[in-house]
């Protein structure tokens, strides 16, 4: 049976096994070879991300570096070019300034040579007069004076130089006064020196000599019709003193120098005039005067002078070429631009305005009157350092930026038309920033273009690298993950019960090792699966036959159960029939008797009976071994014999029990039954009880609460075991009076267990009986049973429980 | 020779029969295997048979019937002496085992 049961429990598992796997198979996790969950996609993603990160980082860093390099290079080149350009311009303007200074210095030197030569003669009057009279009488070097009555002046005929003697220096005959004559002779050395100086050295318009204020004769080389020209251009000059007419203030200025040498502005005697248009030549000229002093240096003795055009200086300044439109200019300290090309003047926004000077016509183009505010507000340098500045002019809508360099020339004494002042010319260079920085801009642009190109190529290279790497990774990933893919496919096939599947991985890595292991497993699974099918088949056959047997057995069992059920019903009926009726017990007047019986199974082996016969009452209690019909029949026999003996009027308990035992023993022998029973009797009469027979202890609870526990082992012997038990049977008499309680029980009461395995026991029974002794027999019974129930709890009841309570009324 | 269940154990050591645990078998039929085991010892006709009940905590009325029947069998063979060992610690033994001695006065009962 146990084996069959085990097989049976296995059977459902085995049979259901064929249906269970069908469900998961219907939902396999199919991963496409290139879905986003596939290993290959992840591999691509990881490797791709790593490579992309690397390339982008590297590319980014190199692009950033190129940009920075470009910026640095541009800065370096810009700085270098700016420094070089400005350095070049500085050198250029300084060189030009030096050249201008040298050019002027040469003119100064030549007028000084003339002046100093004449001064030597003044300082040596004897030589002066001898040389003068000698030269004056010389046919070629002497002056052949001729009075011009028309102009009222005397002038020589053409020769190496012209000497004009003004009307106010002549007598009535038109002859020079003696002191004037002396002056003419004394200054005749001019005729020797000046023409030679004219023909050499710097280009000069003319050199001339003017006598002291009281004899202001004028000698000029080369020869021109000087007086005639003066008459024409400067009417009235023959009536006024020459100095006052032409150069007012100069003479007085020199005289002041003698009085106060510190009043000389510049530490050189030469005095320049502001540029003016020469009346004779029409050229823009500048005169340089070298004063002559008397021998004792107490007064002015006239002057030597030279006129030059500004062409040379102009050429020098105007020939300055910087870039395309860069130009040079020369300005006076008052901002008057003396020299500048026309284009240059236009750039500076100069406005030319003619103005009349005393005797000469000057030219005025002032910087501070420029059309451009930036130019007009420009300050000229106050020391000899080169100034570099920028300014912006607006022509129409176009803004143009210029670089300007300013450098002062050597200072000089200047006759401003009234007095002698210090004058410093300033040389200026102007160049368009755009032009000068053209190369710089070009370089910057080239660097920028180069940078852009590099970055472009870098990005292109980066993208190409990425594409190549991705293609490579894609290709490689296919090979790397091919093994895994085929493993996954094979596993799916296996899941779908295709045990014939095998994988082939050509590589020699871990995946290939997994593949080999997989193939081995697949083989084993295949083998076991096929074997399992055979096994199941075999087992199913066995189960079928076992099942058949079980059905047979079940059928038999059912039959047996029916039989036993019928037997039990009979037994139960017998027990019901044997036990005394409640009504019977209630009729007993002296003693209150309550019996309680609860069989463990359908029919118990416990027995009790109350046999009342007039005043005599006999109460029996017993326990037949076993249960069932046989026990019931035995019990019925005992009851019948006991009733018979009682009816016969046998009052001796010992004889009563002996006869009963013999009767039962013989019947047991006849029926070949193995059973016997314990049996005890309580005989009541006249407030006294007599105990006989062996059974459980009898309890008597006295009216005062005392308990007597009577052992019955020596009062009898089990009934039905021995043919004669007379030797063992005896009696015991006890008082049983008003309110006394007597309790009989079977071992089902004392041996009832709780969950902990503790017996209810005699002690608890006594306690319980004592507790309820004051109550009626019925209440005592119910109380004890209730206590017993609460002791047992949910535990199994193994044996019949029988309780008989007697209470003396 | 041994009969063993969750509840009890009966086994033989020579001519000594040991009982252990709680025996609550339902009837004479249920005790048949144990009686058969005891009869095997008796049939070997030993000089002495010992029943060791010191470890038997509970025995129901059918079990006591078994012991009584076995004692009667032994009584029929005067050559075989029987010894019963019980324990005072087990309440039922001190009362019920005395009946065995009454059945067969030669039975040597030791309740320790």
UniProtKB/TrEMBL annotation, chain B:
Q: Which residues form the STAS domain?
A: 23-86
Gene3D superfamilies with a match to the protein in the record = STAS domain (3.30.750.24)
Q: Which NCBIfam families match?
A: slr1659_superfam
How is this protein named in the record?
STAS domain-containing protein
């Amino acid at each position: 049976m146990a084996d069959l049961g085990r097989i049976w429990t296995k059977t459902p598992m085995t049979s259901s096994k064929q249906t269970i796997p069908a469900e998961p198979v219907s939902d396999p996790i199919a991963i496409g070879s290139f879905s986003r969950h596939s290993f290959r996609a992840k591999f691509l993603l990881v490797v791709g991300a790593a490579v992309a990160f690397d390339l982008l980082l590297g590319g980014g860093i190199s692009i950033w570096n190129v940009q920075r390099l470009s910026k640095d290079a541009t800065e370096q080149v810009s700085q270098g070019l700016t420094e070089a350009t400005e350095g070049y311009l500085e050198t250029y303007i300084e060189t030009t300034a030096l050249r201008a200074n040298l050019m002027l210095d040469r003119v100064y030197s030549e007028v000084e040579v003339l002046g100093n030569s004449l001064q030597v003669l003044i300082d040596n009057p004897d030589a002066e007069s001898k040389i003068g009279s000698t030269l004056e009488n010389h046919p070629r070097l002497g002056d052949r004076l001729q009075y011009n009555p028309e102009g009222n002046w005397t002038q020589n005929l053409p020769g190496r130089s012209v000497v004009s003697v003004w009307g106010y220096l002549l007598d009535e005959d038109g002859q020079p006064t003696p002191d004037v004559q002396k002056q003419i002779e004394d200054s005749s050395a001019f005729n020797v020196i000046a023409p030679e100086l004219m023909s050499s050295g710097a280009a000069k318009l003319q050199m001339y000599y003017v006598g002291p204020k009281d004899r202001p004769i004028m000698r000029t080389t080369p020869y021109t019709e000087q007086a005639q020209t003066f008459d024409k251009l400067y009417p009235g000059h023959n009536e006024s003193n020459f100095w006052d007419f032409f150069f007012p203030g100069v003479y007085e200025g020199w005289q002041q120098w003698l009085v106060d040498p510190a009043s000389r502005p510049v530490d050189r005697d030469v005095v320049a005039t502001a540029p003016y248009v020469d009346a004779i030549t029409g050229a823009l000229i500048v005169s340089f005067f070298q004063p002559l002093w008397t021998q004792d240096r107490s007064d002015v003795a006239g002057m030597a002078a030279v006129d030059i055009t500004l062409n040379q200086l102009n050429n020098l300044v105007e020939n300055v070429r910087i870039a395309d439109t860069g130009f040079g200019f020369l300005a006076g300290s008052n901002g008057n631009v003396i020299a500048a090309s026309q284009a240059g003047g236009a750039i500076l926004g100069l406005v030319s305005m003619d103005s009349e000077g005393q005797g000469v016509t000057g030219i005025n183009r002032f910087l501070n009157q420029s059309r451009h505010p930036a130019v007009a507000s420009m300050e000229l340098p106050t020391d000899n350092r080169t100034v570099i500045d920028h300014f912006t002019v607006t022509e129409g809508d176009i803004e143009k930026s210029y670089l300007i360099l300013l450098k002062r020339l050597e200072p000089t004494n200047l006759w401003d038309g009234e007095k002698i002042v210090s004058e410093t010319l300033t040389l200026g260079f102007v160049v368009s920033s755009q032009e000068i920085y053209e190369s710089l801009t070009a370089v910057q642009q080239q660097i920028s273009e180069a940078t852009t190109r590099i970055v472009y190529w870098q990005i292109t290279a980066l993208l190409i690298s990425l594409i190549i790497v991705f293609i490579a990774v894609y290709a490689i990933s296919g090979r790397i993950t091919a093994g895994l893919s085929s493993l996954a496919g094979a596993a799916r096939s296996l899941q779908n019960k295709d045990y014939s599947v095998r994988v082939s991985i050509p590589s020699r890595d871990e995946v290939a090792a997994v593949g080999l292991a997989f193939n081995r497993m697949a083989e084993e699974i295949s083998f076991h699966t096929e074997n399992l099918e055979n096994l199941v088949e075999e087992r199913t056959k066995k189960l079928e036959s076992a099942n058949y047997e079980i059905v047979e057995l079940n059928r038999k069992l059912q039959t047996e159960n029916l039989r036993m059920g019928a037997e039990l019903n009979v037994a139960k009926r017998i027990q019901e029939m044997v036990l005394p009726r409640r009504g019977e017990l209630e009729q007993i007047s002296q003693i209150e008797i309550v019996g309680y019986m609860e069989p463990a199974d359908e029919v118990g082996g416990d027995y009790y009976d109350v046999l009342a016969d007039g005043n005599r009452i006999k109460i029996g209690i017993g326990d037949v071994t076993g249960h069932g019909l046989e026990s019931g029949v035995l019990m019925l026999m005992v009851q019948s014999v006991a009733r018979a003996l009682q009816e016969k009027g046998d009052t001796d308990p010992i004889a009563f029990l002996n006869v009963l035992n013999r009767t039962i023993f013989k019947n047991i022998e006849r029926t070949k039954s193995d059973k016997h029973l314990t049996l005890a009797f309580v005989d009541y009469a006249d407030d006294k009880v007599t105990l006989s027979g062996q059974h459980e202890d009898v309890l008597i609870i006295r009216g005062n609460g005392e308990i007597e526990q009577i052992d019955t082992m020596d009062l009898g012997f089990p009934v039905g075991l021995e043919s004669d038990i007379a030797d063992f049977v005896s009696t015991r008499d006890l008082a049983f009076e008003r309110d006394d309680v007597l309790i009989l029980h079977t071992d089902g009461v004392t041996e009832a267990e709780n969950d902990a395995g503790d017996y209810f026991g005699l002690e608890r029974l006594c306690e319980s009986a004592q507790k309820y002794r004051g109550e009626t027999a019925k209440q005592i019974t119910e109380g004890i049973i209730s206590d017993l129930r609460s002791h047992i709890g949910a535990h199994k009841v193994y044996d019949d429980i029988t309780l008989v309570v007697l209470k003396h009324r | 020779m041994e009969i063993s269940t969750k509840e009890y154990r009966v086994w033989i050591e020579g001519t000594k029969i040991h009982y252990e645990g709680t025996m609550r078998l339902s009837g004479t039929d249920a005790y048949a295997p144990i009686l058969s085991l005891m009869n095997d010892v008796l049939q070997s006709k030993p000089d002495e048979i010992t029943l060791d009940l010191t470890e038997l905590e509970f025995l129901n009325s059918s079990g006591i019937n078994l012991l009584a029947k076995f004692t009667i069998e032994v009584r029929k063979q005067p050559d075989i002496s029987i010894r019963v060992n019980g324990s005072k610690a087990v309440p039922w033994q001190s009362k019920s085992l005395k009946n065995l001695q009454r059945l067969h006065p030669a039975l040597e009962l030791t309740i320790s």
